[in-house]
Amino acid sequence: MEQVLPYLIWSAPKETKVFILYMGHSRVIYSENVSCVRSSSADKDATNHATVCAGIAVGKPFDGYFIKNGKTVPMKYEGGVTPEAKAKIFLMHNIDSFLQALSKIGKEFDVVSISLGCKTNGLPNVLTQQFAQLSKSKLVVVSAGNYGPVEGVLFPANLDEVISVGCLDKFGNPLNYAPKCVDISCYGEVNAPASDSNDGLLRWATGTSM
Q1: Does the structural domain 3-206 have CATH classification 3.90.660.10?
Q2: pLDDT score of 47
Q3: Which of its termini does the chain have fewer beta carbons within 10 Å around, N or C?
Q4: Which sequence spans correspond to the domains of the chain?
Q5: Residues with Cβ < 8 Å from 112, sequence gap 6 or more?
Q6: Percent of the chain at pLDDT above 90?
């Protein structure tokens, strides 16, 4: 049965080790317990997806700002939901770098968080096999995708072995692009770091990745 958690805040203990996969190139400032690895194709990030996701997960607090109607509006960013956890971020863009990332998830990691997805057409079988093996020893949490209830949950969130995550608005209602039949639905609209230069710029972000 799907659990509805509108305001899910997860604060991991310091000894927890998290491996995080994002699409794109992250420019967030992390704490000293976070390392970041980029695949050769990770610079392709027109929407700053990785920067937003990384900031939500493990970004450091800072005094930021919004641009509203052409004016600068100060706003403090409180930091990621689990900045105390030890984390390794792997930034990727295609199937080859996906496989590369999975091969780097060592025994020391407790949780694998994945904010990306794709349709299953043409995917190599080895991907499914690796996820099945991975979930035997780790908690694997995956965003379900933003294709809505018609297209459904994307890979790898559609695998039985992982926890798929949908998203809700501030009133606890599923957002119209959120797939149905997910394991958990959480609040999916946030203020997040968006700057290419770590200058404090924030933006409104929404999606199952969030």
Answers
A1: no
A2: 64
A3: N
A4: 3-206
A5: 18, 19, 20, 21, 105, 134, 138, 139, 140, 141
A6: 0
For residues 151 and 195, the model is more confident at 151
Query: Distance (Å, rounded) from C-alpha 165 to C-alpha 208?
Result: 7
pLDDT at 185 over 80: yes
Residue 79, Cα to own-chain centre: how many angstroms?
15
